[in-house]
Structures are given as C-alpha cells and as structure tokens.
Amino acid sequence: MNPNLHCSQVVRSPGSGIGKQTGELDMTIIAKMVNSLQNMKILKPLEQKQETKDVFLARANKQMEWFEVNQLALDEKASPNDHGSFYHNQLIPLLAFARNFEHAKMHLEEFYNGICLG
C-alpha cells in the first residue's frame, strides 16, 4: 500500500489515474491504527519485532510528508467541513507516533483555532 492517497477515489478516465482530494476520508483508519499501536506499546500483548516498528515508522514518515506537501492533501486541509477535520485527525496521530510532538502541537493549535471553531 502506498503511503499516499494519489489514487484514492480515482477518477476513471483515459490518462487520469489521479484520485480526488475527497479520497483522504478513505484513510481515517490510520488514526485508529496508530492508537492501537500505542496501546500495544503499553500493554505488550505480543512480542513486537523492532523491524515491524521500523517499517511502520518509515511508512508513517512518508505519509506525513505526503500530507504536508501534496496538493490533494492540502486541498482537503483547506476544506471547511469534515474533510478538513479528518486531515488533522490523521496527521496528528502520525506525528505523535513519530514522536514529533512540537509539530503535532502546531497542527492541534491550527485545528482548534481554525476549522474546529466552525
């Protein structure tokens, strides 16, 4: 699975192959995955291999980069509705998982001082 959403809600037409910005909503499960991984870190239900953690962190870093530079993602961020909310809902847990707390805090403040106010 690619760490970007270029093909989410893809527009099926000759020569296109690029998704629509609204496809960002398709991956809201990412926040739940990050929360589950954080819980597993605390509860330690199974042996966790460092390799698995490293792979997920590498993927998270690629997806964070995509969220912050790709025009589809930035268009979603600018949406004044649930699309804009889910942008932050996905990016902030990834930032926290990567222990990039200052950047996560910046996005939380942006969310609470922006789209959250309506």
UniProtKB/TrEMBL annotation:
InterPro entries: Alginate_lyase_dom, Chondroitin_lyas. Residues 1-115 form the Alginate lyase domain. One of its GO terms (cellular component) is periplasmic space. Keywords: Lyase, Signal. The keyword Nucleus does not apply. Pfam families: Alginate_lyase. GO terms for molecular function: lyase activity. It comes from the Eukaryota. This is Alginate lyase domain-containing protein. It comes from Cryptococcus depauperatus CBS 7841.
